[in-house]
């Protein structure tokens, strides 16, 4: 089993990185709970290497190299013994982690998206891959239908992240909202750059929320095949993320300067609704 110190470090990374994810998965029994903490902590490091390189202790290339050579990497950071434990105790491969890295690498070269098809590929790589990582931990007998469903759930959550983080991503010089959806609703690049929130902007955000909801439905389609404790965590994660879109609408679609936050009170109400 992992040392208490390593578990605490991975758990803290999840607490700080996504309270919604943490509140959803902290109820899992051991060792599934610890495995989710490890996966999140490593994915957080991959993301930080791209978005906050000045704060990251590893570059993306170093993380990829260490993952490739995990058996030979010294345990000079808590993530390496954690990953060694993960792969030794659960039937998952490194492939989805490489997919995750490839998706984050896209941010180096692609700062704007022209179509929803392009964005879906990105969402698969950076978030659908997380569904692939989690499935062997959360499901006792995963099959291709459950895998497809897990990928859809990850993509749905990434769309929510994109909507919520429009302003933060704009500061990094990125526009994930596809140009074809903007054009469809009569919203221009100039308006985007000027942070204009008008009716066309609300329509395009609503369309992206609809796309996310369709993927959420796909992601929950086979929830009945999961062990009960895993199913509860997945429902909570989906519910918390869906609630973010509700907060965005309540905030009058102000996503340029205001981050939508689901309060603990709202999480508590959702918990009671989704676990009864």
From TrEMBL:
Which pathway does it operate in? Carotenoid biosynthesis
InterPro entries given in the database record: Isoprenoid_synthase_dom_sf, Squ/phyt_synthse, Squalene/phytoene_synthase_CS, Trans_IPPS_bact-type, Trans_IPPS_HH
What's the domain of life for this entry?
Answer: Bacteria
Molecular functions (GO terms): geranylgeranyl diphosphate synthase activity; squalene synthase [NAD(P)H] activity
Sorted alphabetically, which SUPFAM superfamilies does this protein's record hold?
Terpenoid synthases (SSF48576)
Keyword annotations: Carotenoid biosynthesis, Transferase
GO biological process annotation, one example: carotenoid biosynthetic process
Q: Has the keyword Chloroplast been applied to this entry?
A: no
Q: By what name is this protein known?
A: Phytoene/squalene synthase family protein
What is the originating organism of this protein? Aquibacillus koreensis
């Amino acid at each position: 089993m992992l040392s208490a110190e390593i578990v605490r470090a991975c758990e803290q990374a999840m607490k700080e990185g996504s309270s919604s994810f943490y509140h959803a998965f902290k109820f899992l029994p051991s060792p599934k709970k610890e495995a989710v903490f490890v996966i999140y902590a490593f994915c957080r490091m991959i993301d930080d290497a791209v978005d906050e390189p000045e704060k990251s202790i590893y570059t993306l290339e170093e993380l990829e190299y260490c993952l490739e050579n995990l058996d030979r990497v010294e345990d000079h950071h808590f993530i390496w013994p954690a990953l060694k434990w993960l792969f030794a105790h659960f039937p998952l491969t490194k492939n989805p982690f490489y997919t995750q890295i490839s998706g984050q690498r896209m941010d180096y070269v692609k700062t704007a998206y022209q179509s929803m098809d392009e964005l879906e590929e990105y969402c698969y790589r950076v978030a659908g891959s997380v569904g692939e990582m989690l499935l062997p931990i959360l499901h006792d007998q995963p099959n291709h239908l459950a895998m497809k469903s897990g990928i859809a759930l990850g993509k749905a959550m990434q769309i929510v992240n994109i909507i919520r983080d429009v302003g933060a991503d704009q500061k990094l010089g990125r526009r994930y909202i596809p140009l074809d959806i903007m054009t469809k609703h009569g919203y221009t690049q100039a308006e985007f750059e000027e942070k204009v929130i008008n009716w066309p902007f609300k329509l395009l955000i609503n369309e992206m929320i609809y796309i996310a909801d369709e993927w959420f439905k796909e992601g929950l389609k086979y929830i009945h095949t999961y062990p009960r404790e895993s199913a509860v965590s997945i429902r909570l994660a989906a519910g918390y993320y869906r609630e973010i879109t509700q907060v965005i609408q309540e905030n009058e679609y102000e996503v340029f300067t205001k981050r939508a936050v689901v309060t603990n009170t709202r999480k508590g109400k959702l918990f009671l609704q989704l676990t009864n």
